[in-house]
Amino acid sequence: MYARFGKRICDLLVSIAALPFVAVVVAVLAIAIKAEDAGPVFYNAPRVGRGGREFIMFKLRSMKVNAPDLVMEDGSTYNGADDPRMTRVGAFMRKTSLDEFPQFLNVLMGSMSVVGPRPDLRRETELYRGNEGRKLEVKPGITGYAAVYGRNSLPWRERLKLDVHYVENLSFALDLRIFLRTFTTVLRQEGVYVDEGALGEATAGQADEMRGPRP
């Protein structure tokens, strides 16, 4: 009952309540983003949602315009503290997760939930093994089980295991625990970035090339 009806009701209540705060935060950050490099404020990111359907996930742009994709050895996207693709404003937004705030609009539109597995790129879903594809049985979330218990510090496959665990144990109690835990995770800035040691040689070379010579 909760998974079919209650979860959507909770999503609507939380997202509607959050909208005024989200609007203020986005307005302030939009000015900062424009002031830094005059590029677009939003990055409309294609992601794969429930049932394998692709949707546009709204984000504030945290990277330089036309930044390339850096891929880890396991096929996931690189997200490191010394990522040369990030703008100064973007680095701040990543640490505080403020770049994800526009996703409350995705929740209102029904393509995302407040709590659920973080959505993957299409090329990442093509790398799923075993039961990992079960994460697509539910709507992706702004926050989720893997996002509050390890986040990017965990290897991608470990995050997928946590996503499947969430799907298999979905309940109001679990969603509430994850939602409350999110505040602690964000305030402590836990697991924001991947371990630099997890980079493959090719990816590390790409990153070094983008950074240029060090002083």
UniProtKB/TrEMBL annotation:
It comes from Berryella wangjianweii. This is Sugar transferase. Residues 7-187 form the Bacterial sugar transferase domain. The chain crosses the membrane at residues 12-33. Belongs to the bacterial sugar transferase family. Keywords: Membrane, Transferase, Transmembrane, Transmembrane helix. It comes from the Bacteria. InterPro entries: Bact_transf. One of its GO terms (molecular function) is phosphotransferase activity, for other substituted phosphate groups.
